[in-house]
Amino acid sequence: MQKSIGTVLAIALLSLALGACQQTPKVVQKAVVDYYTGNYVGAAALLKPLTDKKDEGYVLNNCRYGSAALAAGNLAEAHAAFMRAYDVINTVGTNDSGRTFGAAMVWEGVKVWKGEPFERAMAHYYVGLTFLIQDPPDYENARAAFRNSLFKLHEYAESKKGKSEAEQYPEIDTNFALGYLGLGLCYLRDPLADKALAEANFKLAVQHQPGLSSIVQALHDPRNNILAFVDYGQGPRRAPKGWYNERSAFGPTPQEAGPIQGVAGYVNGKQVTPPLRFDTLDTLALAQEQKWQDIDTIRETKAVIGTGAMAAGAGVAAYGAERHDTGTALAGLGIMAAGALISASSQADLRYWEMLPRTVYLVPMHADPGEQTIQVLVGPATSAPFKVPVKPTGDMVLYFRMY
Length: 403
What we know:
Elements: H1 2-21, H2 26-36, H3 40-47, H4 58-71, H5 75-89, H6 97-105, H7 117-133, H8 139-148, E1 153-154, H9 165-168, E2 171-172, H10 177-189, H11 195-208, H12 213-219, E3 226-232, E4 237-241, E5 247-251, H13 254-257, E6 263-267, E7 270-271, H14 283-288, H15 298-322, H16 326-344, E8 359-365, E9 370-378, E10 381-382, E11 386-390, E12 396-402
Parallel strand pairs: 3-12
Antiparallel strand pairs: 1-2, 3-8, 4-5, 6-7, 6-9, 9-10, 9-11
Helix pairs in contact: 1-16, 2-3, 3-4, 4-5, 5-7, 7-8, 7-10, 8-10, 10-11, 15-16
């Protein structure tokens, strides 16, 4: 009996450990605070040591570090980090059978994090962006990154009864308008590219998000020689849901966060862009769509099985105790312990990319050649002044991070 009680206690401790191991490391929590208080250099310094660890957080930590390095103005480090994440995201078999089995039977966090589909799309966007910011821009590789952001999604049918698996989860084309916009821009700016492909991708971008027509029009204006990419706000946050935290939910919703504000471009303190909507997406909205999430029902199944096993085990243990049958009582305790372990292991993987913005603005503007001070304003928020040597051509791409 003593041995059995010890086994139950050991299982309980293991369950607690499994729940604890999914918590965001303190060093990352500190980096996120630094990032959202504008200390990008400090955030990058904290995250840098994590980028070389070839563990289940490798992709996520490189995405986190890439965000901090880019905001800190370290393009080379940001590009390298996003490329490391990009390579693993696009590698088949990263989560091999062992990791997949472990995720199913123990805890999802043993899987290599590759992010929800919207997080993967944003990782590809940043790779494309860092290729565009380079001087000169690398349009060919930027195109490849933007193209890879447009992977197929799964449309989840409302009613699955009587449908095959293919019918339940049919593949559909992505509605990631920012990817189409980036592709169109690369074809438009590359002197060797087919301009018809630029127009085809711009058309798809506007088809998915009609408000982008003003951006497309501004991109075609030959007078505009600066293009500012502006990350603004905070993206979706992930929280547990369910009796055993077997599910997760992203929040806040766009309605809870309020409308996206307009943006304006300034050169030497003078507004140079019209009051148009230059936002390209809303990550809060993407996070609420099922097709932009990986729906893994095994967590809920495990929770139901675990709860049932605990109830059955309790019944068996009570039956044995009433009849002074030690063997039956111990068997019941064993079933209860197994059920508790299954339920505890059903906890959802709550890891997510904390640095994602709510939206990305694309702001084409004109400035005379020579050293100019560029700023952007979003609502009451003003970016730091950015002094740049402006070229007569339209190849200059700038990046701003704002809240």
